[in-house]
From TrEMBL:
Cytoplasm is among the record's keywords: no
Cofactor needs: Zn(2+)
Keywords linked to the UniProt accession: Acyltransferase, Metal-binding, Transferase, Zinc
Species, as recorded: Emergencia timonensis
Catalytic activity: propanoyl-CoA + phosphate = propanoyl phosphate + CoA
EC assignment: 2.3.1.222
Domain of life: Bacteria
Entry protein name: Phosphate propanoyltransferase
Matches recorded under Pfam families: PTAC
Family of this protein: Belongs to the PduL family.
Amino acid sequence: MSVTKMEEMDLKNIVTKIVREVAAGTEDMAIPVEMSARHVHLTPEDVQALFGRDAQLTLKRNLSLPGFLAEERVSIVTAKGVFQNVAVLGPVREHTQVELSAADAFALGIKPPVNISGDFTGAEDVYLIGSHGMIYAKNSAIIAQAHIHLSQEEAEQMGLADRDLVRAELEGRRPLIMNNVMIRVGEGMHAMMHIDMDEANASGYDSAKRARIRK
Ligand SMILES: [Zn+2]
């Protein structure tokens, strides 16, 4: 074997070792997990239709990622069922979005798609009732796909990009491996996994829950 060949081999080994170490680093990063109960996001027009002319959402408390829980609450109504006192999250958005778990959807007698936030393909219609009025929120209801928020820096560190799909291993007494977990890279974000109530229950959720990414 020539010296050049040997050096090539060494280089390959070193590269392989580095790649493995980087991958191991990714796998070792424990990401906090938050459970999102059913909630709605509203357009400015829908806020006014539900809570009165000139109404704006009132901050109750900030969320761990950009956004806030509003003082305002709504009821979600279909021909089959009602959920009262549902959380409204601010700030307002361009499209009203109702996020339900599959169990919620069953109780309401609707079949929303499992979509990532902002994708209304096949979304269901529900009525929303506020303190001042009611709206027919067409094409608004989805079951949110489990996702992991990352900052740009975190994504780069982990070798991940926006909209990548990964497996996430949820730790705990009822450990669960979830497939098709979508990576969302965004400004002002930091590592945080969001699951809905069904997924939380299935994985024995508590607020100390952590997840690890398995590519
Ligand atoms: Zn989220």
